[in-house]
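Hey, I'm writing a tutorial for new members on how sequence and structure tokens pair up, and I'd like a real worked example in the thread rather than a made-up one. If someone can provide the structure for the chain below, I'll link this post from the tutorial.
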Amino acid sequence: MTPLLEMSWTFERLYQNTADGKTTDIEVFHASTLDNTYIDPTLLEILTQGMGAEEKEARKLGTYYNLSGGIYTGSLTQENFKDPIIDSPQADVMILY
């Protein structure tokens, strides 16, 4: 079970604790959707065609991925920012757009 809409309690309490060795009475198994012989790989490609790389990985490989949150998933660098546009040179307060 890999929740796609939010990193549910299963990630922290089950998956991560097992990976960190904090929980020894639970086993985690990784399986790919492509391992399922009843799923046509061509249809899976069509289904995931419009998805980003991380979402495709979550859908195909069952890895955890948080789809909620920011819309920009890359690294924020100075080139991602533009100088502010000042509404009026006489304004006491800078208005950003």
